[in-house]
Amino acid sequence: MANSKKPGGLREMLESMYSVIALLFILVACVELCDAAAAVDVYRLIQYDMSGSPFGSRFAALNHHAASLHFPPGVDLSRTVLIIPLRELNITFVREYINQKNPLGGLLVLLPEVLSFKTGGNKQVHEKEKMKNLLAELERLLVHSNIPYPVYFAFENDEIDTVLADIKKNDLMGQPATATTGGYKFVIPTTEPKKVASPTMTNIQGWLSGLKTDGDANQLPTIAIVASYDTFGAAPALSVGSNSNGSGIVALLEIARLFSLLYSNPKTRGRYNLLFGLTSGGPYNYNGTQKWLRSFDQRLRESIDYAICLNSIGSWDNELWIHVSKPPENAYIKQIFEGLSNVAEELDLKVGLKHKKINISNPRVAWEHEQFSRLRVTAATLSELSVTPELLESTGGLFDTRQYVNETAIVRGVKLVAESLARHIYGHQGKNIQIFADESSLAVNPAYIRSWLDVLSQTPRVAPFLSKDDPFVMALKKELAGHVDEVNVQHETLEGIFTFYDSTSARLNIYQVASVTFDLLLLLVLGSYLIVLFSFLVITTRGLDDLISLFRRPPSRKLKTA
């Protein structure tokens, strides 16, 4: 009876042993991914096509070991993520690496935490201009290159600094991370990017009606104040554009607030209509402005005396520039320039004039006023930029953060424009009259400017990634509606030469992985332990003979027959 049960008990014990060994192999296979060192938010380099040509980072998923700039010469980096802090960045090395199309598993650029709109706040930036110039050069390089591997940005913190120090230490010792040696592994488990289908642009229009006397059949003249609100940068999820063009948006809202106070009283309501436009598609040849203007009926378009476009007025010292398309000798241009110059002189500021003739056959539009000029509407752009920016530049990049904007500069810009407009509207040109005098009920409100500047400096707003009902767009509409008689919203599709791709941010998981040698050693130790444990259990429960019988060769069939 006992002998008949023995094979069954032994079979059960063997099955248990096989289960344990199978579990062991599963555990060993998972050793590599058991020790998570950190998890950080990362922001992907923009991916887009221009006229069918690919630009930016073409991939998003990551699953490679990490290395620092201290990697040994001649090492293969095709399966390595290179991690570079901005303060250690050698722009020449990066440019040559990209231009020579050298293989790389991925690139992670660490930005100083002070630049983060989430945690940086109003902290002071050390070596301000040096960092700004470096970031601008890096961004220009990355945005205009076709990069066949994932490129991400992240902000420095204690966790990632610790990981980087460990990686540097191993690299300096000549032990770069590989599957054989172990080290740190960077993993971003995400799907590959997809095209953004029919990206939307939303234009917001505000109308403040002028005073029309009884029996006056003529339409009142109109002055337009315009600012483009969307941005473009190397990392769409970080493109807040505090200066370009957050400063212009804030200035427009404050000017609308000031004139709403004047126009709320029939005695001080001017005989000019005021048209406020918050436009989209600015980085893309002001595509939104073009569609907004073409939606006007001819009567409204012809009623516009002139338009003032506000662009980047948040970090100037003592001089602003008026950019125009019509010759300086033009009567309307002279009127705009003289009006602003007279007020600037009283405020101890300087205003310069820059004339750039437009080429109707060239689709490139460098300034927003050029879209007005193409429709024969007098317009000018007021900006701190003296030189015409290149396509996709000065549109709210990585360095365009709150720390680089001086709200006092915006206050002075608002006062300059508001006083000039008011003197034109009320016929006080050339007179030293301050309508928006400090300490008066019509004074420019620095607190209002500061609060909106803070909001804009925390809000990425790249048009292809903003929906029609985006909370930011709705907030802009609501704010403008509080200062004007009527608000209209126009939704248009971004058309032209650009195609954009999604997947702008992700979560990077950093794992500290063991080497293959360690895994094999661990397997050997655990395997030996299980064999010893199994042998002990068999001896104590069944006896030594049963253990020996497991390793005996079974008798042949002939022997059994005999």
TrEMBL record:
<keyword id="KW-0812">Transmembrane</keyword>
<dbReference type="Pfam" id="PF05450">
    <property type="entry name" value="Nicastrin"/>
</dbReference>
<comment type="similarity">
    <text>Belongs to the nicastrin family.</text>
</comment>
<keyword id="KW-0732">Signal</keyword>
<keyword id="KW-0256">Endoplasmic reticulum</keyword>
<dbReference type="GO" id="GO:0009966">
    <property type="term" value="P:regulation of signal transduction"/>
</dbReference>
<feature type="transmembrane region" description="Helical">
    <location>
        <begin position="520"/>
        <end position="544"/>
    </location>
</feature>
<dbReference type="InterPro" id="IPR016574">
    <property type="entry name" value="Nicalin"/>
</dbReference>
<keyword id="KW-0325">Glycoprotein</keyword>
<keyword id="KW-1133">Transmembrane helix</keyword>
<dbReference type="GO" id="GO:0005789">
    <property type="term" value="C:endoplasmic reticulum membrane"/>
</dbReference>
<protein>
    <recommendedName>
        <fullName>Nicalin</fullName>
    </recommendedName>
</protein>
<keyword id="KW-0472">Membrane</keyword>
